[in-house]
């Protein structure tokens, strides 16, 4: 399967999720900016996929990343970030969202499992009410896009 075919718009994603659910697949959802892909990202994506049959990744749009991370971000465009994510074996589908949170996307997917980083308290996890189960992932210490940017900028 070509990576580009895994990048879906919201309507395509809704139909895709319906087909997966009809086929009896357990659907997992996670999200993030995934600006400069690193070991922490790969770990959370592989962990997420291990929780079900298919993994949907919600990807912050460029405008959303700028609002969340500042005017110098993202480093990579949403099209590039989506393609890199889609090329990973653990990722089944990628959908870009424009809002600051994936609330509406999670509401559309209604995942069996919602995975979020351990830096979030359960009560802070957006969209948790639409998931059958919420799982937190222990982040890899010192692995972040911000740290990579600081290191490269020295």
Question: Could you characterize the architecture of this molecule?
Answer:
The chain is of the alpha/beta class and 154 residues long. The protein has one domain: Rossmann fold (3-Layer(aba) Sandwich), CATH 3.40.50.620. 37% of the residues lie in helices and 18% in strands. The chain has helices spanning 10-22, 39-49, 62-69, 78-86, 103-109, 145-153, and strands at residues 27-32, 54-60, 93-97, 113-117, 133-137. Strand 1, helix 2 (39-49) and strand 2 form a beta-alpha-beta unit. The longest helix is centred in the N-terminal third of the chain and has 13 residues, at 10-22. The radius of gyration is 15 Å and the shape is globular. The model has no long low-confidence stretch (mean pLDDT 92).
Kindly state the number of beta strands: 5
Could you tell me the mean pLDDT? 92
Kindly name the structural category.
alpha/beta
- The backbone outline, from C-alpha atoms, is globular
- Element order: H for helix, E for strand: HEHEHHEHEEH
| Strand order, sheet with most strands | 3-2-1-4-5
- Quaternary state reads single chain
Number of domains: 1
The CATH topology comes to Rossmann fold
Helix percentage range: 25-40%
Per DSSP, the total helix count is 6
Q: Main sheet, how many strands, which sense, barrel? A: 5 strands, parallel
Radius of gyration of CA atoms, rounded to a whole number? 15 Å
CATH class: Alpha Beta
Query: How much of the residues is beta strand, in percent?
Result: 15-25%
Low-confidence parts: none
Q: What separation lies between the terminal Cα atoms?
A: 40 Å
Q: Could you state the CATH homologous superfamily? A: HUPs
The CATH architecture term is: 3-Layer(aba) Sandwich
